[in-house]
Amino acid sequence: MKNTLKIIFILTFFSGWSCTDFLDKPPLDQIGIDEYWKSTVDLKNYTAKFYESLPYHENSMSTVGREDAANNVTYRTANSILNGETTLSTGTWQSGFAPVRSINIFLDNYSKCEDAYSSWKQYLGEAQFFKAWIYFDLVQTYGDVPWYTHALTPDDEAELIKPRDSRTVVVDSILNLLDMAVINLEAKNEAPWGNNSINKEVALAFKTRVALFEGTWQKYHSGDEFGTTGADPDKYFQASVDAGNELINGDYSVGIYSTGNPDEDYYDLFGTGDMGAIDEVLLYRAYNVGEFIGHNQNYYGTTTPSELGATWSYVTSHLGKDGKPMDYIAISQSVKGNDFLEMLASDVDLRLRQSIWIPGDVQHYPSDVVFEFPPLFAGSRENNPTGFQIKKYTNPYQELGYANANDAGRIVFRYGEALLNYAEALVELNGTVAYDELNLLRARVGMPQFEVLSQDADPNKVDYGYPISDALYEIRRERRVELAFEVLREQDWKRWAAHELFLNMRPKGYPFNSAEFPTEDPVLDENGLVDPLQIELPNGYNFNPGRNYLESVPQTELTLNPNLDQNPGW
Fold first, then answer.
1. The pLDDT value given to residue 290
2. Segments in the chain below pLDDT 70
3. How many domains does the structure of the chain reveal?
4. Is 184 within a domain?
5. 369-370/362-364 β-pairing
6. Cα–Cα dist 430/425, whole Å
7. Tens digits of per-residue pLDDT, 446-466?
8. Residue 79 covered by a domain
9. Rg of the chain on CA atoms, in Å
10. What is the pLDDT of residues 61-79, one digit of tens each?
11. How far is Cα 171 from Cα 232, in angstroms, rounded to an integer?
12. Is residue 340 exposed (0-12), middle (13-18) or buried (19+ Cβ within 10 Å)?
């Protein structure tokens, strides 16, 4: 048995996170693991590799496309998660748990450093943050997972075949790590690379996200297979609120980016290259075209949308400029095509026109490329299937071609999200509405102050599958509008147990104007909206609520470890 476990360990754990990671399995001609940890530089160099795990802008696809498993965007083919088409995994946990072991090597050895604690505590905080980051991803993917406190060796037989720990045990451990990280990390303005470094502010923001996720998961999944017996959602809501309070009221460099230009500030935030001076940006991945480190988001966001478009559901979640709901279906019966898009620009919350292209928008100033019509009937790379072509993350002053020539930063955490996490957790905890914090977001785009409206008076009312308060309904709306295309929407509907948002429904596009495309005959729905998946999904998305909230535990792991159990529905 022991020899078998050693083989399993070698195959699964010593493979490491990176082929070049000599600390996981040191070559004989390099410094050994026991000799490595003597200096602050050693600790700094070790944690640096974990920055690779943070989100980045794509070179080979639109970053917005990562939000496909939600109802804000759609491709011309159905998403496999929303349509219940994900398949049983036959592999291992190697890719998920190799980084756990790698970060645990640091946590097992950092105390050997001979330099003063003050010189290396930043890197201890980074390691604590990254372990929390890695495990939060595992919890979202699998739910219950084994929690490992140290780097396993072939002699750790009991731990190699341990059962999964409760997700609440894991999340509590994540939150504890983040508390320690806040103590050890430098504040953003004192961190080694400013907001390119893990810092106190981002650890607090991450805590608001993790705690809100788990509180809402346990609240809204309490009656299904994915909840945890005995869980206390309010404990997590309180943790999110506490972290938010600390970030909002503490001595930190935070704020909402605004130059006083409501027509452009929201858009400019996401297209800026050097984000180092922006207080709202708590952590971002930087690019530098001069050093040939760029991405292609202009290419995918302007002339090459590659069959990706925003949905009618997303567009109609926006309030009018007066802060009141609009009857979009009624408007669409007489206002269609480009006229409808121009109406959105003139009458609707300005965050919408700064997130999708409107006829007349300049896509590239140096060559005077102007958006004229949505490319509904263009070839696959140039095609936009809904009429709502996504503008966010572009910059009209930078290269349009496929040349890795866009250097807009990739925001990983921003203060705006932390405010929304805080507001949602607070209303879940005790019904209090965080008007001051929500109004900071409204003020940037010149919207009226946040108001709790009657959801029953909303002509575009969305059904979450269960009743919620009007205050929570409006906070969820604000979150959707503010954080659109930031690859958080899938997290949101999963933690809300809100598959009713798309089950048996199809993603729709804008109201088609046949006079603008007289030779084309697109598929439309009964209201005249573009309906790109009508043939593929005649009955709408076929999500399986008893299975698809979590991925399957890989079959190989179940075979190797008889103490593991499978996730519901698999």
1. 87
2. 1-32
3. 1
4. no
5. antiparallel
6. 9
7. 999 999 999 999 999 999 999
8. no
9. 24
10. 999 999 999 999 999 999 9
11. 12
12. buried
